[in-house]
Amino acid sequence: MIAIGSDHGGFELKNHVKKYLEDKGIEVHDYGVYNEDSVDYPDCAGPVCRAVLNKDAECGILFCGTGIGISIAANKYKGIRAALCSDVYSAKMAKEHNDANVICMGGRVIGRELAFMIVDEWLGAQHQGGRHSQRIAKIHAIEENQ
Questions:
Q1: Which of these is catalytic: 8, 85, 97, 104?
Q2: Mean pLDDT, to the nearest integer, of 34-62?
Q3: pTM of the predicted model, to two decimals?
Q4: Three-state SS for 2?
Q5: How many CB atoms lie within 10 A of CB 27?
Q6: What 3-state DSSP class applies to 144?
Q7: Rounded Cα–Cα distance for residues 94 and 123 (Å)
Q8: 112-124 vs 88-96: helix axis angle to the nearest 10?
């Protein structure tokens, strides 16, 4: 299951990606928002990040206007490795090298077809381990020492 969420700026793109995933037979849990009323992106990151951390979801996808704010908020959750993805190559590397468990996109900066390609590439990629796992371990050490 994939956890998905947005603020008002990412609402429309979130809905397109949700439908795209569901049409592919992928289970999605939408943690909101459910309309375009203004809301603060840090409040929207929490439910998706907690679902990933609690293993209620395999991974998460978050949206805001640019993807920047919600990715910053998501990365404040210990154990979340959220990557802002605006292109297909970054989505692939986010999984292969960084084992990103959340990706973030900007509803005002990328179109829906590109978002679909980003999601497909990220979901289809596998973490490569090896030296990349060592680097992720260093990130975890930083979290533990803060």
A1: 97
A2: 97
A3: 0.96
A4: strand
A5: 10
A6: helix
A7: 10
A8: 20
Q: Which of 49, 59, 64, 104 is catalytic?
A: 64
Q: DSSP per residue over 15-29, as a string? A: HHHHHHHHHTT--EE
For the record, the structure tokens of 29 come out as: 């849990």
Nearest to 84 by CA among 97, 72, 3, 30: 72
Known active-site residue 104: no
Burial 57-87 (b: 16+ CB within 10 A, else e): bebbbbbbbbbebbbbbbbebeebbbbbbbe
pLDDT 10s digits, 105-141: 999 999 999 999 999 999 999 999 889 999 999 999 9
Judge contact between 81 and 110, C-beta under 8 A.
no
Strand partners, 71: none
- Taking CA atoms, 4 is separated from 9, 94, 130, in Å, by 14, 17, 29
Is there a contact between 85 and 91 (Cβ–Cβ < 8 Å)? yes
Running DSSP on this structure, what letter comes out for residue 35? S
Q: CB–CB of 78/51 below 8 Å?
A: no
3-class SS of residue 146 = coil
Measure the CA–CA gap between 116 and 44, rounded to whole angstroms.
21
Residue 61's φ and ψ, nearest 5 degrees, are -130, 125
